[in-house]
Amino acid sequence: MVPVSYYLVVSAIMFSIGAMGVLIRRNALVVFMSVELMLNAGNLAFVAFARMHNTFSGQLFVFFVMTVAAAEVAVGLALIVTIFRTKNSINLDQMNSLKG
Amino acid sequence: METASGLFFSLVPLIVFLPVLGLLINMAFGGRMGEKAIGAVASLAAGGAFVVSLLLAYSLSVHPETVIVPFAEWIHIGTLQLDWAFRVDTLSVVMMLVVSGVGTLIHIYAVGYMHEDVRFKGDEKRFRRFFVFLNLFIAMMMILVSGDSYMMLFVGWEGVGLCSFLLIGFWYEMDTLGRPSFANSNAAKKAFITNRVGDFGFILAAFIIFWAFGSFQFDEVFAKVPEIAHAAPWVIVAVTLLMVVGVAGKSAQIPLFVWLPDAMAGPTPVSALIHAATMVTAGVYLIVRSAPLFSVNHSVQFFVSMLGAATALFAATIAAGQYDIKKVLAYSTISQLGFMVAAAGMGAYVAAIFHLATHAFFKALLFLDAGSIILGMERGHHHLAHGHGDSHGEVFDPGDMRNMGGLREKMKVSYWLYLIGALALAGIFPLAGFWSKDEILLDAYKHYPTVYWMLTVAAFLTAFYMGRQIWMVFFGKPRTEVAAHAEESPRIMTVPLMVLATLSVLGGLLNMATILGFTLPGSHLLTEWLGHTLGEAEAGELNLIVAGLSTLFALLAIYFSWLIYGKKPLATGQLDPLKKPLGPVFFGMEHKWFIDEAYQFLFINPYRAISRFLADKVDWAFWHDWFHDTVIAGGYNWISQVLLNEYADQRGIDAFANALGSGTKRLSAMMRVWQNGFVRTYALTLLVGVIAILGYLLLK
Fold this sequence. Notes:
Chain A is an all-alpha fold.
């Protein structure tokens, strides 16, 4: 049986890749996918711990995370599409008008 | 014996809340109701309280033990557990019956009286206010007599004091003759302040009671009396003497009686209800209620009865030298209250309550009838003023007996009723006053001979001044045009008087004495009735010496008064015939033995001097001129002068404020750099923050 720590290491690596992607990529779509990667890293950790403690609450949480992620995708993609229509680009560095 | 349930005891809160309901209705809707409806509501409220009192009396006749009806929580602090509970026992129910019964009759009378009074005084709007106050008074008096602790009694005690103040100063912007003046409001203040002195004694007594007995509740206090009386007798002495101070204030005893004659500034129904029949007897009620406290110390008892007897005698001498019809009655009330206090002091509690009840009947009758006579004179005065076409040329005093005379022709009903009241007060057999006064005299005869002789002389004087009044008011020829045109009062005023007159005649039946060894059926009613609360008392017996002597004295006094005032009636402008033979003595009686002047000299003037010193010297010269102007304002000016220069102001304060501004500017310029608008930077900041927090949590 594979020890839990293995899963956690995989999860940590996935999370770091996702975080790096969010920080350094400029394409909004890629950033978006990186966010999904981080969420799924979290899911993996949840399932691994659920298995370890022999409870269902971790698996239950995963369902919530997936639901929220799906909703987020719907909203986020809609935003990206709208931004692309107005700016003709999805480069994140061009979206700096919030600094006031 | 039946149980208390199923009887009417639980109705007892209504004796307070029916009058309160009446006054609320009159306050809320009285403006649109008209005089008749206002009077009806107020009288029904008082009458309702009377009906409830009757039901309570019936319940007690079935179940004579004390019943305590808890009503509301009031104060719970530490060991102090103070609740509003109603105490229904034979004593409190007697008081309830007197208060609500006489009160209802006076309400009805007042409907007629105030109808005219507000018109003579020229402010018809005040009709409603009068009945609101009157109902408030009944409610407060009921709280007083039904309270189950010294504190509830005190609440009522203060409440009736307030109503007394409000009603004495009812026509606050004029004097008794309707001229613009502060006289009435001064009389109200005098009553209120004099009563504060007494209340001070009462509240101290209450504090000592709580300190020594650990409770305010009557039964709990009385249960501990034997123990405390043995361990610390001085506590009982202090409590009772301080209570007597309160009694002296409320029941107008020496030395605090001075407010009661001035209280006659109030409308006559007020004088009858508050200042004769009910409120002023609260002090007597307090002594009787505290009987277990008073009974253990004989020197206190002797002191209280001497105080009562001295007041009875002293006030009686003043009453014989007064000219105002209501002033005579006022001093007579003080004198009769002296009788009651003397009786209560001797331990003759039943006699005190008996006299309290009969006195309520005949003194209310006399006052109300005096009001009817004064109004009759007013009517005559108005009749004349209209006839001659001029209004109020000179001020006319309708209450001055020297302006009256011959009224028995003009006001027949009032005359006969007044005669009954006067004979009852003088103690003529078989009217009510005879029985109650005799019981007091008999007890004094047995226990304290000094008190007995003082009271006997006071009783002689009582008969004398009442005789003087009757001859002066009703006999002879009218001494003024006004008296010749006086008119009788309407039936709404005379009918309640007839009821009171009946009570004054039959009141003796309340507690018939044993006559010559024969005990008639129904004798000693009150003695047995109160025995359930006050313990068994000796049943009164008609002592032939005492009764004979007092009757003889009363008849003699009336004969003397006839010799002096009746045989040769006073002529217009004639001086009092007693003035010459008695000389300075009558001068003293006429001027109330200069008590008011003495108080002016002894208390009021020094008090004014102290207040003037405090106002002029301490407040104005010291605080205002020196402390505020010199110290505070001067010091402030000095500090400003010191600071107002280049170094302190420009380089110190200004520079600091400027530095604050420029520093903020620089800081914001520095921090603006962080805000670059790139989402990635914010995300990085977030990540760094999360890592920092997680790192702290992991490594701490």
